[in-house]
């Protein structure tokens, strides 16, 4: 078996994932548990990490351990302060902190904070993915989107994260679909309706009032203009289209530009489709290889001192 270069920990709100990463970024082994930072008692987090990594640590006692995500939040193992943008590998690495747990030294990656005008935005975990994205920036600024509950749009200029913006698109979709006024209209969960999705992406791109257009999804169904089974596709298209329009308006992606969609499965495909509907170019890359490369870059120099 290839010797690992590091053990990587991706610790989110609801899941704990660990990876054995080779020097070339390949994932050699993987494991996970449902011990999320927000689903477990803080006093149980250290034991969960030891349980996940203990066997690997016994086999490879000298490889570094790098952890990113909510592990560095105020509810995680150690609150690690945000690093301000612009930030590249050296700036993020300088903000890392090491904690000693069960005989292991774990380097925790800080999140990033972006301030512009009177607004502020933060990310934790995505900074590692962004730093590891194999994006060709030779021709200028790269635009990247990480779809999810809280979608992140970011710009990278010569390997430095210069700008990012969060959209609570997935959270809004789930809340409005299952707790809002559309709930009583829902039928059995349907397959994706490409026509409804495409039509709604256009509506979202041109929307002058998202709250009105959201209610319009219900109005179309109750008046018989559209079928109830297409509600999820219509709502998804509307929200993603509106998100994309906002990203364009904020200059996070250039008109007729290219966007790297970093994600997996159907959601990444929806974003790729919406981006192409808007007349942009889209490429899709899986998240875990980017995450692994980010860990490798951050572990490439001397580790920060334990405190």
Overview of this protein structure:
This protein has 307 residues and is an alpha/beta fold. α5 (194-206) runs parallel beside α7 (231-249) and α7 packs across α8. Strands 3-2-1-4-7-6 form a 6-stranded mixed beta sheet, sandwiched between helices. The longest helix is centred in the last third of the chain and has 19 residues, at 231-249. Mean pLDDT is 91; it is low at 301-307. It folds into 2 domains: 4-125 and 289-298, 2-keto-3-deoxy-galactonokinase, substrate binding domain (Nucleotidyltransferase, domain 5, 2-Layer Sandwich), CATH 3.30.420.300; 167-285, 2-Layer Sandwich (Nucleotidyltransferase, domain 5). The chain has 9 helices and 14 strands.
CATH topology of the largest domain: Nucleotidyltransferase, domain 5
Summarize the helix and strand pattern as letters: EEEHEEHEEEEHEEEHHHHEHEH
The main pleated sheet reads as: 6 strands, mixed
Can you list the strand order of the major beta sheet?
3-2-1-4-7-6
Distance between the termini: 34 Å
**Would you state the CATH class of the largest domain?**
Alpha Beta
Count helical runs.
Answer: 9
Helix share, percent: 25-40%
Q: Name the CATH homologous superfamily of the largest domain.
A: 2-keto-3-deoxy-galactonokinase, substrate binding domain
Radius of gyration: 21 Å
**Helix-and-strand structural type:** alpha/beta
Low-confidence stretches: 301-307
Measured by DSSP, the beta-strand proportion falls in 25-35%
Which CATH architecture of the largest domain?
Answer: 2-Layer Sandwich
Report the count of strand segments.
14
Number of domains: 2
What is the molecular shape? Answer: globular
Pfam families: DGOK (PF05035)
Protein name: 2-dehydro-3-deoxygalactonokinase
InterPro entries: DGOK, DGOK_C, DGOK_N
């Amino acid at each position: 078996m290839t010797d690992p270069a590091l053990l990587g920990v991706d610790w989110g709100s609801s899941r704990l994932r660990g990876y054995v990463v080779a020097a070339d970024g390949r994932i050699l082994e993987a494991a996970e548990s449902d011990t999320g930072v927000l689903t477990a008692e803080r006093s149980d987090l250290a034991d969960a990490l030891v349980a996940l990594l203990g066997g690997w640590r016994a086999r490879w006692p000298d490889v570094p351990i790098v952890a990113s995500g909510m592990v560095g939040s105020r509810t995680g193992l150690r609150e690690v302060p945000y690093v301000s943008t612009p930030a590249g590998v050296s700036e993020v690495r300088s903000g890392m902190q090491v904690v000693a747990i069960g005989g292991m030294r774990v380097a925790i990656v800080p999140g990033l904070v972006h301030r512009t005008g009177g607004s502020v935005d933060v990310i934790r975990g995505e900074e590692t993915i962004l730093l590891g994205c194999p994006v060709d920036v030779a021709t200028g600024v790269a635009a990247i989107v990480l779809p999810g509950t809280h979608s992140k749009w970011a710009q990278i200029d010569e390997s430095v994260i210069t700008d990012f913006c969060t959209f609570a698109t997935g959270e809004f979709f789930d809340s409005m679909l299952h707790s809002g006024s559309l709930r009583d209209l829902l039928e059995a969960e349907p397959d994706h309706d490409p026509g409804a999705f495409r039509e709604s992406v256009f509506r979202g791109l041109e929307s002058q009032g998202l709250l009105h257009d959201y209610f319009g999804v219900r109005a179309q169904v109750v008046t018989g203009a559209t079928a109830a089974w297409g509600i999820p596709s219509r709502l998804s298209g509307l929200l993603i289209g509106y998100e994309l329009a906002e990203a364009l308006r904020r200059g996070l992606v250039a008109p007729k530009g290219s966007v790297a969609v970093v994600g997996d499965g159907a959601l990444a495909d929806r974003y790729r489709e919406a981006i192409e509907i808007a007349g942009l170019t889209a490429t899709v890359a899986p998240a875990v290889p980017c995450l692994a490369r980010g860990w490798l870059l951050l572990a490439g120099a001397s580790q920060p001192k334990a405190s």
